[in-house]
Description:
The protein is mostly helical. The chain has one domain (63-485): Hydantoin permease (Orthogonal Bundle). The chain has helices at 2-57, 63-74, 82-89, 91-118, 125-168, 175-189, 195-226, 246-259, 266-270, 279-305, 319-352, 364-387, 391-419, 427-463; strands at residues 474-476, 483-485. A two-stranded antiparallel sheet has the order 1-2. It is globular, with a radius of gyration of 30 Å.
Amino acid sequence: MASHASYNDSAYTGGAWDRYAGDTGAAKVNGLDEEMEKADQNYMLSDDATLHEGEQKFKKLGWFKLTICLIVEAIALGALSVPSAFATVGMVPGVILCVGLGLVAIYTSYVVGQVKMRYPHIEHYADAVQLIWGRFGYELTGAMFALFLILVVGSHTLTGTIAWINIVQSPGVCAVVWGVISAIILFLLALPPTFSEFAILGYIDFVSIVVAIGITIIATGVEASRAPGGLSAVDWSLWPPPGTTFYEAFLSVTNIVFAYSFAVCQFSFMSEMHTPKDYVKSIWLLGLTEIFIYTLTGALIYAFVGSAVSSPALLSAGTLVSRVAFGIALPVIFISGSINGTVVGRYILNRAFPTSPIRFIHDVKGWVLWVALIAVVTVIGFVIAEAIPFFNALLGIISALFISFFTFTYPALFWFQLVKVGKWNQGWRNITLSLVNALVFVIGVAVLGCGTVSEPLRQTLNTGLSGPLLTPLPVRQRDGHHPTVRHRSRPREFHL
């Protein structure tokens, strides 16, 4: 019995122990699971907080700062190439083109903003094209977007080099030194990762270009009034001068077209707006400002200088005034160039780390990656500008290819495929807007077709292939007197 009782007790005890151990083990396991779950929740909360903080950091752009960013991207020394366009097409067509193309640019920018409002997830231009052309359009436009902005960085490196040479006029300094200095300045100015921070530089940029243009207008006006015959002796004309070819006239039109190409980075800028619907204020303020500046600059300087106007026009203001104007224009050269590096850097970072907090550049690792990325972009732009012997022709054809799409062709397609409600012939509003967007599409095709053919041919036939800017500038005369500065073969005109 005892044995049996002992067995039963042990059996009972064992069963109770098993149940107890099982319950306790389950409780421990469950407790461990709960702790792990809490840890996961805490980790996710921390990650979400980091993402939230990052998003807040990159959502501080208001409509006025957006306007400043667009001004920085759009208005550079290219504004001073408008007078030479007037000299080719004449005063009346020049004014009509500045006002007309400005209004078209405002409208296409409005369409871009409508697409962003309807599809808030769009961060860059390629995301919008993906909606109409799928993955192929996304990859194609992304490559176009990055390549174009990097080339613009290279263009501003080259422009900075030319500006330093004109300002310092030191024949003992090799031109590549000025190129390196320009690239370093572009790199440093592109480091602020948010466009809200960058907008602070935009105020300096805007004052710089306005003052440079003002000095050029006043200097050329004073010089014209003091010349024999005064202002009445200036050889400007209302209409295109006799002998102007279609090719020459269209090339001048493209100079004005490119001056209004501010829609390229609009998606990128709007992604950081805290109130995106306010973008309409920005594009109207920017568009009207550009129309005013371009029309006034083109008309006045052309009226003061005439057919001999240089591009950029500040070269027509005399040696001393040109040096002063170039010095004042240095901020706009480098700030307008560096924002392109910032935009392409943001695009690459968002593309490489779409879900990682590192893209918000909130820690040491993020900053190291961001600085390295901006350095690579700047170096590539510098090397392309310095090493490719036909860089000007390349930039011309790339601009014709890309700007025609970003400013005209894509916005027209956006309206037909993403914005339009109902059939194109449904009501007078749809009919009118369909005709307007069809015209915009035609303008884009014309710029694409004529620009890709004429620009490279002009560069190649008129200037030949230029060598890289890697040879020292000073070449002393054999008689040992004053040094002669010899620049590599480059066209007198350059456009941004």
